Sequence to fold (184 residues):
Amino acid sequence: MGCKSCIIIVYFTLTDKMPYYEFNLNFQGIGGVNKQITIRPYEHADLKTISEIEKETFGFVAYPAFFFRQAYDILSDLFLVAESVDGKILGYVMGAFETGSCDSWILSLAVAKEHRRQGVAHALMEQLLQKLIARGAESILLTVDPDNTAAVSFYRKQDFHEIRVENDYFEPKDKRAVMRKKST
Fold:
């Protein structure tokens, strides 16, 4: 089965409404109440909140707001947002295909601090991985700070394996672990 990344253009040309995906997750927060979240494509109105979550999560290496605006134009339904029933943005994930390849990348995954460790990141990753694999991704890659043990552990649970460490990734003395998951 070959890579189907070109389907993205056809899909968005023919479809004017993006699908929504609903998950029931147990939040171990206020009163242990079950809350429903929606995983949906990013919308331009999400820009401010997504930028805030990005800065809170990644600090000096955070993507700038203009990047999210451009990602909105080119990634479409590979840019997903987790939203609570009351409309609060809980987190997001972005993916893309490598040019001329069946390799794809998780560009960013972030969940607001108060909603971490509640299944939001897992739900976002699950939906994005399904979309990438359905489009023919043979391999999914990502980078992570190798000292971020919580993130590395999360990705290992998603069947990602470290393939190398790159030094000076964003700037001098900044290293990133490159991790990969095979789709088959």
User: Anything to note?
Assistant: The helical segments are 7-14, 47-58, 65-75, 120-134, 149-157. Strands lie at 21-26, 34-41, 79-84, 89-97, 103-111, 139-144, 161-166, 176-182. The chain has a mean pLDDT of 81. The first strand starts at residue 21 and ends at 26.
